[in-house]
Amino acid sequence: MSRDGIIGAIQRGLKRGPLPADQQAMLAARTALHHRHLIPARGQLDLAGRVALFALYVEREFGTVARLPNIEAVPEAITSYLANQNIAPSIVVSPHPDLEQIPFRDKPMLQVRYGVATAHDAVSLQQAFAGVAETGTLVLPSAPTRPVKNNLLPDTAIVVVQAKDILACYEDAFDRLRHEGAMPRNVMLVTGPSRSADIEQTLELGAHGPRRLHVLIIDGES
Amino acid sequence: MLQSSEAFVGNAAKGMADAGLQRALARAKPQFAKKRQAAVDKLPEFEALRDVAVGIKNHAIANLDYYLGVYADAVARSGGVVHWCSTAEDARAAVLQICKDAGAKTVTKGKSMVTEEIGLNDYLEANGIAPVETDLGEYILQLRNEPPSHIIGPAFHLNREQWEESFRAHHKELAPERVFHERRDILTEARGILREKFLSADVGITGANFLIAETGSSVIVTNEGNGDLTQTLPRVHVVVTSIEKVVPNVEDCLALLRVLARSATGQDMSVYTTFSTGGRRVGDLDGPEEYHVVLLDNGRSGMVGTEFQDMLRCIRCAACMNHCPVYGAVGGHAYGATYPGPMGSVLSPMLQGIEAAHHLPNASTFCGKCESVCPMKIPLPNLMRHWREREFERHLQPVSMRYGLGVWAWFAKRPMMYRLGTRAAAVGLGWLGRQRGFFSRLPLAGGWTAGRDFPAPEGDTFFAKYAAASRSARNDNSVRNK
């Protein structure tokens, strides 16, 4: 009832009835075309340029970045980062196939648990679907292998992103997502660690989400 | 909380006399403008993106009936439920029913201006459900029982001492002798208290910045991450939003996001921009089991096809109030409305009725700054003028003002009489004030002289001077041409 009432009121305002079938088809085609609007030039670079710009913007937004040659270097990068920050060496890791390849047994001092973060986990390791050079943004779609809580609950979020997955713009990332199937339940675009300026318009990091965001860029072979 | 704008004039005077508020305004105002300008300067495409954004919203509104239908069907396909609500009352009832069906005792809330518009918190409390605001600014306002004074910085009017005082008064379980050395300590205390609330809530309520027709997604934008915790941890997620937020597809939404954060906080992108589509999927390890959208009209459909249709483009960035000299002088509470500042002065007469809110379209100098910074190029001064016309038609101003305007109009339509009259006034006042050069009291100008002296006119009227200057210029030319 309400649906018809509201739609009817809009149509009265537009001084027409429901759109004729041919016009509906035109709008459906416009929607399905996924036409890109104007996209800023600054992210449209070659791979090396995109990776450099992405890293620059992550750091400008108060994140930190380490570039690693391959996934084997991840355990050492994590233990040294946590030691430098004076954080206990214990992490919850998303059950993602790429993260399951990481040779954590090389670092027996690092406690590793695969699964979903709880309120007691201080550090998480997440796998990014993509990075966006335009603003230094991580693309984190939900999946059984990528729980959303791991993006949010721990004080320190560490995220792995493959250099080859660092794209020019958000549109590139959504194209890839569409290629994989339906829109995921939850897609987070994350740009820097959590913050608030609600107290006297002064920026403070670590409001409700992670206080620290550390991004590990894996350059890969070649 | 539901508010009224009838007392605007008195409240504006109170705001200007409030030293704490004036301190907060002096601190915040230049920052908002500076940050926006810096973000705009860094993006050469910004001006062109504004035009793109305007085109997208105009297209969506011209086909709003179609896109809302597509959106609702997509939500249903993803396993969500849309609750269509014509009025604020319908929307409150819909949220309450969802909470009751979920057996909820406590609900957490992300920041949502639409829930302020419908007075949701008071209603839930009256029905035995405890709402907890989780945006830091909204949280302290809930402790202090105050409405927001700004749509993106709801508590910017508070100073640090007021934060500390409220936290001490309400967080009784913490040691009373604790010291807040810096702002971070206030933030850390709130984080600890609210973390417990997030984990124990039965229902999470968020707003939406955009709705995407093709996918049935709702999109929120936050910096704190509170919106994400609100919609991820409880068993039920309720989105409370309004019909004009729908856009056709993801690409349209991304184009709008590029102007939103820059216009609002001067960030290139807010920290968390999150797209939510339905409830938990097979195999998911977390996320809400139920996903509801309470879709509110509350008068918006009545703006379609009228002179106010442009207002439906608004994306709630707050650039207009951040740059408004009137907002900057009186603060947000004076407006007595959910939405303050220029955009509120256009929306509030629609929400409250022009009878209650007729002062607001007059709370503008028509300097045009709001329109010049609006990413959606909404002609705000023009829309306020339309409300002023309606106010005049309905005889809502005091008799003396209508009478004064009538007298002025009579003269304005008769240029000879106008010039004679102003000349007589200028000469007469000049003569009367010739001793002191100013008046500290003047009949019919009490509003002026209460605050400052009125200078006595010197010399001739503008018209007389202009005519004399034109005559002498003509003479000079004719001399030179000889």
Can you describe this structure?
The complex is a heterodimer of chains A (222) and B (482). The model of chain A has no long low-confidence stretch (mean pLDDT 96). Chain A is built from 7 helices and 12 strands. Chain A folds into 2 domains: 1-33, no CATH class; 42-218, Rossmann fold (3-Layer(aba) Sandwich), CATH 3.40.50. Chain A is elongated, with a radius of gyration of 21 Å. The longest helix of chain A has 14 residues, at 47-60. In chain A, the strands form 3 sheets. In chain A, strands 1-12-7-4-2-3 form a 6-stranded parallel β-sheet, with helices on both faces. In chain A, strands 8-5-6-9 form a 4-stranded mixed β-sheet. Chain A is α/β, with parallel strands linked by helices and 222 residues long. Chain B is of the alpha/beta class and 482 residues long. Chain B has 3 domains: 43-302, NagB/RpiA/CoA transferase-like (Rossmann fold, 3-Layer(aba) Sandwich); 318-393, no CATH class; 400-481, no CATH class. Chain B has 22 helices and 12 strands. Chain B has a 6-stranded parallel β-sheet with strand order 1-10-7-4-2-3, with helices on both faces. In chain B, a hairpin with a 4-residue loop joins strand 5 (210-212) and strand 6. In chain B, helix 3 (46-62) packs across helix 12, helix 9 (160-170) packs across helix 10 (183-200) and helix 15 runs parallel beside helix 18. Chain B is globular, with a radius of gyration of 27 Å.
